[in-house]
Design a protein that fits this description.
With 425 residues, this protein is mainly α. The chain contains 20 helices and no strands. Helix 17 crosses helix 19.
């Protein structure tokens, strides 16, 4: 019988791998449990052949169980790739792999992400560098997976030609984003945690412009499951509590280590695993997950594919820049903006704006809660309209919006601060 391993005896990187493995298995096994065996393949097939255009809630298109199965498969495949490439796990790893599982609840699947990852691999070969250097950006790049699915279904050619064109488009996307993302990071200076979503937005605009030139146009859709299933909320809460307990043990039962994380602004690159250790990081991830769930309950929101995906993404990025102190002002700004705009807090796009708006958390962390509040309000105003520019084919629509907000707001804040300093002098 294998001897029991105390969590403190396991190396941090290996502990992260095991937690991510448990995350993927939990998604997969839960999906298998709640789905009748005779319905799994037909409902999973419905997910695989869907376009994935925003907002395609896989809870609606395939059912809760098949959506969780799809998310589990996508997560475990991403984890397998990172493992075979010999990557050491960190906060970046957690964010990259958890976002794969999150968005596999509304837009990603093994088929439409594969060409993009192949393009990412080919880029590494072109650069004559190991794939491990670009793999995580490749995982983030799958935000444009709906382009692949859309071309497979929208082109007027034979299925074989459609598959070839869609696959080539995916390869191009996987090859192009690693060349663009380093430059877009310099635009917002690390104040948008979803930088690849920002870079992908520009590529999506370019591709969509070409497609519209050929009279091919994609329109956003609205598949959205209303309400909150109690068992699903309890399942999520139990997972967060288990993660918190593990982090508490790894932090040697010191809650004070959790609050140390909040001293960071979150400005990229803010890898909490390296900065404060794996224990406090796990606790921060759990707290952020519970706070997101509490926010949905408070506003009368919904727990479906997109919102659960947003929560899982936030949990992942709570290892890489997000914490309650820098996220709360963003959510408050989004919520408050609904009193000025024509929206309600429980509108689908506004729920996602609040949860994904946390990409702007570094603004609140660096410049204070008032500016974080302003950033949240601007984000809410912009995100509801910008998606039409690329026909809903960029899953990280909030990431692109956050980049625009940071690009406009950060120079304005810094110019005011310089003027205040010069007046004080």
């Amino acid at each position: 019988m294998k001897r029991f391993e105390h969590p403190l005896s396991i190396k941090p990187s290996e502990m992260i791998h095991r937690v991510l493995l448990a995350y993927g298995c939990l998604l997969l096994i839960t999906g298998l449990i709640v789905t009748p065996p005779n319905q799994l393949l037909p409902q999973l097939s419905a997910i695989l052949v869907s376009s994935g255009v925003l907002l395609s809630d896989y809870f609606v298109l395939g059912g809760i169980g098949p959506a969780l199965v799809n998310a589990g498969i996508v997560t475990l495949l991403a984890l397998l790739l990172s493992r075979t490439q010999g990557l050491s796990y960190s906060g970046m790893s957690i964010a990259a792999i958890m976002i794969m599982g999150g968005f596999a609840l509304f837009g990603k699947n093994p088929l439409n992400t594969a060409p993009i990852l192949l393009g990412n691999y080919l880029f590494s070969r072109y650069q004559r560098e190991p794939w491990s250097r670009y793999l995580y950006i490749g995982l983030f790049s799958t935000c444009l997976a709906p382009f692949v699915s859309y071309l497979w279904t929208a082109l007027p050619f034979s299925p074989v030609i459609n598959l070839a064109i869609g696959g080539l488009a995916g390869i191009f996307i996987g090859f192009a984003i690693p060349t663009v993302a380093p430059h877009t990071a310099s635009f917002h200076l690390g104040y948008n945690l979803y930088n690849v979503g920002f870079a992908a937005g520009f590529i999506a605009i370019a591709i969509m412009s070409v497609l519209r030139g050929f009279r091919l146009d994609s329109q956003s859709v609205m598949f959205w499951r209303k309400g909150i299933d109690i068992w699903l909320a309890l399942w999520l809460a139990a997972g967060c509590l288990a993660l918190f307990l593990l982090g508490f043990i790894l932090a040697e039962q010191k809650l004070s280590t959790l609050w140390r994380i909040t001293r960071h602004s979150g400005r990229a690159i803010a890898d909490f695993v390296f900065m404060d250790g794996v224990g406090p990081t796990f606790m921060n991830m759990a707290v952020m997950g519970l706070l997101c769930l509490g926010y949905l309950l408070l506003i009368g929101g919904d727990l479906n594919g997109p919102t659960l995906g947003a929560i899982l993404t936030t949990i992942g990025f709570a290892a890489f820049g997000m914490h309650p102190r820098n996220c709360a002002p963003i959510a408050a700004g989004v919520w408050a903006s609904t009193f000025l705009l024509r929206y309600q807090p429980a509108d689908p796009s506004i729920q996602l704006a609040a949860l994904f708006g946390f990409g702007l958390a570094p603004i609140a962390g660096q410049f204070g809660p008032i500016w974080g509040f302003v950033a949240g309000m601007l984000h809410c105003a912009i995100v509801t309209t910008v998606g039409s520019v690329y026909g809903g084919l960029n899953l990280y629509n909030n990431g692109f919006t956050a980049g625009l907000v940071a690009l406009m707001l950060v120079p304005f804040i810094e110019s005011l601060k310089r003027e205040d300093e010069s007046n004080a002098a």
